[in-house]
Write a structure and sequence with these properties.
This protein is an all-alpha fold and 88 residues long. The chain has a domain of 48 residues. Helix 1 crosses helix 2. The termini are far apart. 0% of the residues are buried. The model has no long low-confidence stretch (mean pLDDT 85).
Length: 88
């Protein structure tokens, strides 16, 4: 599939525990693949379970039907991106 402006991959930054980073690095080194490949696989294979757990039923139904709801504009995308907030 050729990438266009509409389907261009996006960059997301995330902080992880050093133990997980080491495991990811080992997985990449041993297999000859990039760390980003494995992160992409984890996201693609795990996002449905996260949606089932965390999204309200009406929003989940929109996601499942392919009609993604618009993102709330008042949220800042970087508010917790590099903050020192602990995950709940």
């Amino acid at each position: 599939m050729r990438r266009t402006a509409e389907n261009k991959l996006k960059v997301v930054a995330v902080r992880v525990d050093p133990q997980f980073e080491q495991r990811l690095r080992l997985l990449a080194e041993v297999t000859g693949r990039k760390q980003s490949f494995f992160l992409q696989q984890m996201i693609e294979n795990g996002i449905a379970a996260m949606e089932e757990t965390w999204l309200p039923p009406d929003v989940l139904e929109q996601v499942k039907s392919g009609a993604l709801p618009p993102l709330q504009q008042d949220r800042t995308a970087t508010a917790d991106l590099f903050g020192d907030q602990d995950d709940e």
